[in-house]
Amino acid sequence: MIRSEYWQPVGGLELEPNALRAVTMVEDNAIVTAGPGAGKTELLAQRADFLFRTGVSWHPRRILAISFKVDAAWNLRDRVRTRSGGQYAARFDSFTFHAFAKTLIGNYRPILRGADALDPDFTIDAAYRIPRRQITFEDLIPLAHVIVANSQYARAALRQTYSHVFLDEFQDATKSQYELVKAIFQNTDSVLTAVGDDKQRIMGWAGALDGIMNTFSNDFDAAPLQLLQNFRSAPRLRRMQNRMIRDMDPSAASPDENLAGSEGTIQVLHFKDQIKEAEAVANRVEGWLAADVPPNEIAILVRQQSKFVTETLREELYQRNIAYRNEQVNQDRASEPVVALIFNFVRVVVSDRHPDAWSELMRVSARTSVSEEAALRFDRQLKQFLQDARVRVGAACFASGDLSAWRPVIFEFLKLVSRPALAALSPAYRQGKRLDDVVEDALEAFGSELVIAGDPIQAIKQLSDLDAVRILNIHKCKGLEFQKVVVLGVEQELFWGDDSESEFFVAISRAKEELFLTHVDYRARPNLPAKSFWREVRSACSTFLAYADGLTDRNLSN
Description:
By secondary structure, the protein is of the alpha/beta class. Helix content is 46%, strand content 16%. Helix 1 crosses helix 2 and helix 15 crosses helix 16 (355-365). The protein is globular, with a radius of gyration of 24 Å.
């Protein structure tokens, strides 16, 4: 434990004044507004480290982090583990709002009475509710609110457990989610830090509450702090972003002298059609991979109609044997811890060239809640099983391209890890059939890719968030960052409407080193339903592309 005044940011990072103030606040609530790339996730991870190492959050009390999306919750959890290590990270609980609500219901279910009452083995379904036996995801927040509103014991337990609460991407919180936070933590000694970007509220369709940042500031007497700097991107990219900030909110723009430097690449690429575009983008991706850029550091971003806009590019990548992952389908699956466990198991037993997969497999599978002797015994059993599994799947008679051959091997591995250990990976796995459903979904996805690739490692690459180039809609990339970013189709036909400016800003601020903006004159109509709108002749979105003027290495026409 160290004194507060001697604490330094972990990793040798330099925090701007407002960020340092937010990180080191002891008794005051705070509401931090920041643009993309200002380091919101890093700020919360550094704050967790400060609270743990200085003893402000003293053992056995914990820190609760609630995020709007699954990937944000996992990103924050992993960042805290990286910054502070496993000992402190063990006292850090990172949930989505729905996962947090489900945990409350699981822990305090008997409090629910009457029409809200639930059986011990209740399940959750996407659409259908059955009295006592089954609820929907939409029921989770209201039922959790019923519990904390009617049980002084539940409220007191939560307040005693959590000394500090982090609310990540808070601009996207709905009214019901915010009311749950208020019911538990308003007017208590728990200290809250809310972080968000009011310029980036692109989840309005989900019922995001207007003015949530200001409302929180008033309700919790929270100190308002604003982060202006984007430390993620190279200087040239930051200057482009700063031009947009000047138009969106002049008071938040950085002085030009703070953004000096020639590092970073911006290119505007103009093509005759989507075929030329696909060839050029695939050439760049191929070059990056040949230069040992990790596949998951390459992102292809599309504002809308991703399936159709990227159709030609995906075919080109496939022909070149470049693994890609369509985030529209796979992002939520990849954030499931049991899915990552299964995929790492396949990597380890098929090839010995995945040390990171081995380390993560051993970490997740480890028995930390048993005696040292029992933990060592399980460790030996696991390593022996992995060795035997390697021999088994490496045999000439093993049909490695057939899911039916993999099923018994994977299920034997999961049985060895044990169901209680698997259920402990996520609160969502402790109720109903969620764990079984996620496992089955992972196997089916693996099987589908095996049919196409015929090779387990290539199939895993297509599904993995480590081994594949990422293709995703802009609204799926919030909170993520990549070395190389291609924004495909900066065209009037894709960037239109009230949210187009904020989404373009989100897209360009994902890039740390290189940013490529493409547009074409002609996009052939894909295989759309007959009445679906599609404009084949395209026009460049000149207003947005103009932000790159004078910053590009060169504008290219192909």
